[in-house]
Amino acid sequence: MSSEPSPSLLSPAQRRVVAAAIALVAFIGILALLVGTITTLAWLAGFFSGVLWPLAVAGVFALILRPLVEWLERQLKLRRLAAVVLLYGSFVLFVAGALVLAVPPLASQLLDFISYAPTLWTSAQASLAAHFPRWVELIQKEFNDPVARQLIETIATESRALIAHAMPSLRAAGGGLLGVFAFATHLAIVPVYLFFFLLARGEPTEKLPRHLTFLSPGLRDDVVFLVREFVAIVESFFRGQILIGLIMGVLLGLGFTMVGLRFGFALGLAFGVLNIVPYLGTILGLAIALPLAFFQPGGGAALLGLVLLVKVLVQCIEGWVLTPKIMGDRTGLHPVVIIVAIFFWGTAFGGLLGMLFAIPLTAFFVTVWRLAKRKYFSAPHA
Questions:
Q1: 83/321 Cα distance (integer angstroms)
Q2: Residues 6 or more apart from 233 whose CB is under 8 A from it?
Q3: Is the CB of residue 290 less than 8 Å from the CB of residue 306?
Q4: Is 279 left (phi over 0), alpha (psi -120 to 50) or beta?
Q5: Chain segment 71-125, per-residue pLDDT in tens
């Protein structure tokens, strides 16, 4: 007697629904695990920020300066220690020369700008009252409204909290004499870390495989590859961004000075260096230089247009010449992705450290995804 197959517990449609539900639960679990991991890392980074940021700064500078140390070894036939000491001595002489020649006029311009800020504000108010009286009347009317005043106070409070959140080290430094001493100590330890990092020979990840013997060979190769990719991304990004920022700062400073912007060289140099965090120098530069050009004595729409022209020209030089020549397409990230990454990692890691490493971290995770998709998630070939 032939035995009939027992009927299935679920119909094909029900099995598809159950499979979709299991896949959704697995996706939510992976997403929750990822969010939890990032949250935990962010908490650890914030809690140990005083320990981590000196190590991070020293590590980045070691990656940037390592080729120079090796070049000194080869060209001058020096031992590693002598090459590092020579590099440190040259840096001290350079800093001493900068302190004597460049810092006094730059500091004078910055201090003059700070002292000129109240005058600029008064001049801006007078100019607005003279040329746009209806707008001034409307703004004053709205400021007298209790709801608008409460909204402004809320925005001011949130802005102060955001600044404190974005600058954890400075916030700690502003907490009193002990905080200032701790910040100075962390800053002073960076050259010590850097000295020992530069003394190390070979690639930073050269000995990594022997410490990962507990992993299978395939997974170990993937981990070593990703770590080496991250180190290479960090090295090329910061080396390129620092060089591009310095060149842009000099170009902006010279351009602003030539068109007659007050404090032009100091402001241009500062805005260029701030571009180490992508778009930060551009945003601050436009927010400060344009009002200053319009409201300074002898300024106006013509000077504002010239300052904007200088900014556009320098930005074109950066986009068409400097970045392709110096960095190439190392990160391969869209500008919108870069902006979102800066805000995301700045929020996730609680401040400036996350903003500085936003692009390398994002490029690294893009590399991880591409490797995983190619090696683990690709459809099997027929």
A1: 33
A2: 330, 331, 360, 363, 364, 367
A3: no
A4: left
A5: 888 888 888 888 888 888 887 787 677 666 666 666 666 666 666 666 666 666 6
